[in-house]
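Protocol step 4 of 6.
Sequence for Amidophosphoribosyltransferase (Clostridium scindens) entered exactly as in the expression construct, tag removed. Do not edit the line below.
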Amino acid sequence: MNKLEKVTTGLGEECGVFGAYDMDGGDVAPSVYYGLFALQHRGQESCGIAVTDTYGERKVHFKKGLGLVNEVFDEESLQTLKGNLGVGHVRYSTAGGSKVENAMPLVINYVKGTLAIAHNGNLTNAIELRRELEYTGAIFQTTIDSEVIAYHIARERLNVSMAEEAVKRAMGKIKGAYALVVSSPRKMIGARDPFGLKPLCIGKEGNTYFLASESCAIAAVGAEFVRDVEPGEIVTITKDGIHSDLSMAIAPQNQARCIFEYIYFARTDSTIDKVNVYHSRIIAGKALAQSYPVDADLVVGVPDSGLVAAKGYSEQSGIPYGMAFHKNSYVGRTFIKPKQSQRESSVKIKLNVIEEVVRDKRIVMVDDSIVRGTTCANIIKMLKRAGAKEVHVRISSPPFLYPCYFGTDVPSNEQLIAHSHTTEEIRELIGADSLGYMKIDKLKNMVGSLGYCDACFTGNYPMEVPGRDISHAFE
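Step 5 output, structure tokens:
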């Protein structure tokens, strides 16, 4: 077994995509590097950058590898990536294992030139599309959905005059969740699935355009946020500017953004589809305080995504907010560690309880989710060992009951603690004095009028998924 082969026993992360096109011909690799650095929370297994010079020989130079952005790239390697059009990616494997072959961007050489593609998401019809391609002679180098997308774009490009039209035709065949950043020899193309499951936005600084999974990455490179790419939209950036095609869009009431972006995935300083992530987490915390009041002395959040919801709980309840944990910033998110043994040890390395804060206190501990229960139980033990009299757990998401098919690596039902245990049983297993989950009907308050997907909590999928009857799907 590859030493990094993933074992799906925890909640998996998404991926992050970033693109840059400098109309003045300047090298964009440093900007792509900093953009990926800002998106590191979305994937920590592998990363890559591919660049091309739209004014020169248009050859694609790329580098990718296993590890964090600052482990794979250094100043010397960035110097070799010369080009004014670049695509970058940080990856957490949802489909395909943790192998360097599966790192992105994918670089495809074909008769019309070279494509580089970075993809966040999962296709629901990838298996049948792959089989269809294999029976017509395609040879795959990876085990990831993104190569299926790349093949379809390359094939369609043979029949149309423009790369963006090939992307549009490919979108007519692929089903599922995707945010794409594609570079052809003279264009950067961004595309978002019609449901808007995965985020994608546009930034601009001088004569350089950027595409990114989150607005925090636009800010990280000193650019101005322009707008979100709309669900179903294809944006094409050339030396002449930006062009939009919304012909693949569906009705707004059918859109289904991943609600977990707002609960957990996105960085607190990001805004997705005009909803500020910080604000949405404050609202979640306030909803928890309304639904599950308790007599306590202190509200604390589990870093990082539990902190803001804890602040909301404190504001609503009037119970003081405190910092109970010191987080070692040099340890990655525990959920993203490929093996359970790594997850368990990294909880102890990652968080230390500040005893002076929690000793002899009744604590409300706010976190974003409980998947298997192991991490939460360990943290409660740490708090009680440090002298906390009571630990009341509040979770800013409903219980996970169903698998996700769209790029969030929610484990199989057997590995989800809420699938086989009641809330009271979970409370006992993790050692909490009380336990309250976000109520499903409160989720809508986090995103206002946006259509969202909550299938991992409800089983109401926005589209047909493998092996399920979705007659009751999201509408």
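Step 6, annotate. The longest strand covers residues 113-120.
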